[in-house]
TrEMBL record, chains A, B:
It comes from Alkaliphilus flagellatus. Residues 231-318 form the DHHA1 domain. It comes from the Bacteria. Residues 13-155 form the DDH domain. Transmembrane segments: none annotated. The lineage of its organism: Bacteria, Bacillati, Bacillota, Clostridia, Peptostreptococcales. Pfam families: DHH, DHHA1. This is Bifunctional oligoribonuclease/PAP phosphatase NrnA. Coiled coil: none annotated. InterPro entries: DDH_dom, DHHA1_dom, Oligoribo/pAp-PDE_c-di-AMP_PDE.
Length: 320, 320
């Protein structure tokens, strides 16, 4: 960490960013690290390629996160890429990375390609936020209440509220420290999980009623057309959790949502609950990636073609 | 705790039990305390008034838990009542309690009536299991892997996976210790949350599609008739979680399930997500009880009468 402190101290400006389609861990980690760096260093820019989903508005400093367009003309001495398995996850922000002097890659994905000049990768961490907690302390900065709130948000969203096996004893010790940093846990939980729209739950009701079960009960499929999203009047960001309902069925090894994006591409999300059912490898067959138990890909195909392809390819991954 | 050690040492036999309708915290706590006591004391009986739901079969020692009928003729020197707000929660096991020399009441309900000879009540504890963790250590017994598994089960089921505000920094520190005691966390999570039946999810789909919203969006109601349970072919124990889906809607202050029991009684479950919306008080209007944010009651009425009564009585508790 001494090297990181040295580089930061010698940098005139610092960028902190993460992947496209921001989620709790990417937003939490860039905000936490960015706010911490601002305690000591000047010209720290926190930015994302895509806008943030509204559910993270309760992270009060999130309104100061800039967009790619605001910083694209700058060249940074130090560039932090957080929660990105590879540099393409940065989307258009990769341009900014390429102009930067030193790239620091901090991530917890097993597929990480070590694309930075400095790579801090811990595949046993629940979240990038969990790593950022330690890094902030190691470089002598302070976990204040706001930073603790960001880190807690990333940990709970990436660990399924400590449910996934990536939540270790260390994760819980950090959670205890974050609570002692006086976070308003109820506010975080309320904003993340208790502000669902009625439309959202009606949509979930529809999806569960129409969920398809294939491969003798080993594969659950949710087909989400754009017509359906229009009918229920919900944004596509709101359907994130649907795929987990299929995963949690007894006997189901793989759950998948096939979702029509506005640009006629299909977005696939895969989930597994077993160590020996690796949906990252399944996603890789569609040029996607992710974790062993949570992965994704995009696909140019019709819904029916996609479904047939998924069923065919899933066969080799399900349990016998 | 010295007094407890003294009494236990001087007891010829010890009973450990909990409330009717066993749940994760009651089963986890009686098993954990009972197994721990067996390390040092003889003639320890763990029993319940009602059979255990099958989802807790993974707690391997649970098969040795006896029923009320197996122990009803015994008189115990020491009787532990766990997770019971009052003695009536024991159901028929209250007979056994009344014959016992010393009753120890260990609980975390705010409504606890201090009905024991010794009362250990901590309303700030996430669960009775969390209390049992400390008590086992305080009386010099050992948290082994099996006991840790039971305690972890009680903590996660009573704290909504650390989501509720009853999960404090202390809860997380204990969770870290339990993980270090080598529990198989994935096995616990799989058995608690990832073995749902397809019927169960179709039923959830139906409930969400037919959920009623009253009082200008402040009250969510799920009506669950016995016909419906028959149609979806699911046991009434499987519908526990439905009420939470209503609670988690933006603007909803109170969520309630009205469920027809086989004996033509109605069972009411209430949930709140706000500190200032106290559904324990609402449940008390129906002679029920529980916690501020999770309570219940039974009612002899028709479904329509019950619904009208709930709407009328809920008015004074919702936010304006």
């Amino acid at each position: 960490m001494n090297k990181l402190i040295e580089i930061a101290s010698n940098s005139n400006n610092i960028a902190v960013t993460s992947h496209v389609d921001p989620d709790g861990d990417s937003i939490g980690s860039i905000l936490a690290l960015g706010l911490a760096l601002k305690q000591k260093y000047k010209n720290v820019e926190i930015f994302t390629a895509d806008p943030l989903p509204a559910r993270y508005d309760f992270l009060v400093e999130s309104k100061y996160i800039k967009r790619y367009e605001d910083v694209k003309d700058k060249a940074f001495d130090l560039f932090f890429a957080l929660d990105c398995g590879d540099e393409n996850r940065l989307g258009k922000s990769i341009d900014v990375m390429k102009k930067s002097k030193t790239v620091v890659n901090i991530d917890h994905h097993i597929s990480n390609t070590q694309f930075g000049d400095i790579n801090i990768v811990n595949i046993n961490s629940s979240s990038t936020c969990e790593m950022i907690f330690s890094i902030i302390k190691d470089i002598g900065l302070t976990i204040d209440q706001e930073i603790a709130t960001c880190i807690y948000t990333g940990i709970v969203t990436d660990s399924g509220n400590f449910m996934y096996d990536n939540a270790t004893d260390k994760t819980h010790l950090i959670a205890a420290e974050l609570i002692r940093a006086n976070i308003d846990k109820q506010k975080i939980m309320y904003n993340l999980y208790q502000k669902k729209s009625i439309k959202n739950l009606r949509f979930l009701g529809y999806c569960l009623t129409n969920m398809e079960i294939e491969l003798d009960g080993h594969l659950a499929i949710f087909e989400i057309t754009s017509t359906l999203l229009d009918k229920f009047d919900i944004p596509s960001a709101d359907i994130e959790g649907i795929v987990n309902y299929g995963r949690d069925i007894d006997g189901v090894d793989i759950s998948v949502t096939i979702r029509e994006e506005s640009d006629s591409k299909l977005k696939l999300s895969f989930r597994s609950k077993h160590d020996d059912v690796d949906v990252r490898k399944l996603a890789e067959l569609f040029n996607g990636g992710g974790h062993k138990k949570a992965s994704g890909a995009t696909l140019n195909a019709s819904l029916d073609e996609a479904k047939a392809l998924i069923i065919e390819n899933a066969k080799q991954f399900i349990r016998r």
